[in-house]
Specification:
Oligomer: single chain
Strand order of the largest sheet: 3-2-1-4-6-5-7
Radius of gyration: 17 Å
Length: about 220
C-alpha cells in the first residue's frame, strides 16, 4: 500500500506557539523548543520508509523561531496550508488534501522522541488495517487511515481533552475503521514534559539539546 506521511504543524512563532509551555518558561524559549521538536519530527519522517511526505502548516514561517533551518528542512516536503475552523476540521481536511492513492499516516510536532523506525513500522501495519497512537495525556500522537476520507469522523471529536483519545477511537470504530494501537508516547505541552521526553530523544536531538540549553541558562540566572 502507498503511504503518505502527514505532519500537522504550527509555525513556532514566539507568543503563539506552545502557549501552555510558554506560561512558565517564556515565549521565546517555548518557540525554540517547538521549532526543535518540529525539526526532529521532520528528520524522523524524512528517514521513514514511506512513499510521500507532506506537511500541513499553519502560521507564518517567516516569523518563526529557527526559520532558516525549518525552511531548509521543509524543502524536501510537500507543504500545504491547513484549512478549516476547528482542529477536527483542519485534521480531516489535511488528510483529504494529503491523500494520493493510498493511506495517510498523520503525526503532530509534539513528540520529538518519535523515530523513523516507529513510523516505518506504523506504515507497515497500514497494509492490514488502520492505526492509532495514544498519548499519555489522554490524546493521541498518530493516526493512520487506509481510507483518508474516514478522518471526517474527527469532526465530532472534542479535541485537547482528557477523553480525546478514547473519543477518537470510538468515532473511528463507529465509522468502520479497524484500529491497531501503536506505542503510547508523551506529548510536550507543559514544562513537566520536557525532561521525560528529552530523555527519550537521541543525544544529538535538537529538542534534547534545546532543553539542556534552556535548563543551563535558567540555572545560571538563578545563581546570579
Amino acid at each position: 500500500m502507498i503511504v503518505t506521511a502527514l505532519v500537522v504543524a504550527k509555525a513556532p512563532v514566539p507568543g503563539l506557539a506552545k502557549t501552555r509551555l510558554a506560561a512558565t518558561i517564556g515565549d521565546a524559549a517555548a518557540a525554540e523548543l517547538a521549532a526543535a521538536s518540529l525539526l526532529d519530527t521532520l528528520d524522523a519522517v524524512s528517514a521513514a520508509d514511506v512513499d510521500h511526505r507532506v506537511v500541513a502548516l499553519t502560521g507564518s514561517l517567516a516569523d518563526a523561531a529557527r526559520t532558516d533551518e525549518l525552511t531548509r528542512a521543509l524543502a524536501s516536503f510537500t507543504v500545504i496550508t491547513q484549512r478549516g475552523d476547528g482542529l477536527g476540521e483542519r485534521l480531516a481536511n489535511a488528510h483529504a488534501d494529503a491523500a494520493t492513492d493510498g493511506a495517510v499516516l498523520q503525526i503532530g510536532m509534539d513528540t520529538p522522541q518519535v523515530t523513523a523506525q516507529i513510523l516505518s513500522d506504523a506504515a507497515v501495519r497500514l497494509g492490514s488495517g488502520d492505526v492509532l497512537g495514544s498519548a499519555e495525556d489522554g490524546g493521541w500522537w498518530a493516526l493512520g487511515l487506509r481510507d483518508p476520507a474516514m478522518a471526517r469522523a474527527l469532526l465530532d471529536v472534542p479535541m485537547s481533552a482528557p477523553s480525546t483519545g478514547t473519543d477518537t477511537h470510538a468515532a473511528l470504530t463507529a465509522a468502520g475503521a479497524s484500529l491497531t494501537m501503536l506505542a503510547e508516547l508523551r506529548d510536550v505541552d507543559f514544562e513537566s514534559d520536557l525532561d521525560p521526553v528529552s530523555r527519550r530523544c537521541t543525544p544529538d536531538s535538537r529538542f534534547r539539546i534545546a532543553v539542556d540549553r534552556i535548563r543551563s541558562k535558567r540555572d545560571v540566572e538563578s545563581v546570579t
